Amino acid sequence: MNVKTAGRTLDLFEAFAREGKPLSLSQLARAIDAPVSSCFGIVRTLEARGYLYEVKARAGFYPTKLLFEHARAIASRDPLAERFVPLLEKLRDQTGETVLLSKRLDRQAVYLAVLDGLHSIRYSPKVGEFRPLHASASGKALLGALEPALRNELLDGMKLPRVTSRTITSRAALEADLEQARARGWYVTHGETVADLMAVAVPVAASGEVYSVALAGPMHRIEGALKRHAKLLLELRATLEEVA
Questions:
Q1: N or C: which end of the chain has fewer CB within 10 A?
Q2: DSSP secondary structure of 74-109
Q3: What is the CATH number of the domain that holds 37?
Q4: Which pTM was predicted?
């Protein structure tokens, strides 16, 4: 199976998640931007492996629960979950805000875990979503934790696109922001990726890897509790690095 086929297979499952109903072969082909013949091969392979079944009465295909069962087994043995999630849950309960665990993937931060906040109005991204390093608190924490040589090499090849009117798009301004954040130990964004969203994050070194833990929510709530949130994050960082 080549890389394109792997991508199309993931696109297929994402199409089912988005549509929430059986899809015909032609609908799937459009959803994954592939010729019907290529889509047919993917569908038949997945059907033969037990991941899809044909819904005759509705002339379409739908996933079985096999993928869910595998995902549940994988999640139950997640080494990060065993060490991090109970402490992240405690932080979420202490603050009421959404807690995010992230890792750097090239020039982006990817969410590995998302614990939704307790307020009705909250930030609710999905696990697996990406955020720019220069415009998110998680990304800034991951950038700031890099060795200077590696950080400079990464910044040399990075564009700093404007996401909102508050996004930092100057390398000099970004480096100054990172330097100030390193000195105090925590990183912050004020509506730089999502308007009216504020987040505060710290880097966490665990098992030879660097992660970031962030709190995010509406600006009016986070701003008023910023110092308390930062203190709790720094305490959590110390605990996580001790148990990792």
A1: N
A2: HHHT-HHHHHHHHHHHHHHHHH-SEEEEEEEETTEE
A3: 1.10.10.10
A4: 0.77
* Rounded Cα gap, residues 167 and 164, in angstroms: 5
3-state SS assignment for residue 132: strand
Shortest CA distance to 123 belongs to which of 104, 99, 140, 141? 99
Domain end call among 69, 94, 119: 69
Give the range of the structural domain holding residue 64, as residue numbers without chain letter. Answer: 3-69
What contacts 196, CB < 8 A, 6 or more positions away? 218, 219
Burial pattern 191-223, b for ≥16 Cβ within 10 A else e, equals bbbbeebbbbbbbbebeeebbbbbbbbbbebbe
> Can you tell me the distance from the alpha carbon of 217 to that of 42, in angstroms, rounded to the nearest whole number?
40
Residue 63 DSSP SS3: strand
**Same-domain pairing of 63 and 102:** no
Domain count, the chain: 2
How many angstroms separate the CA atoms of 214 and 23, rounded? 38
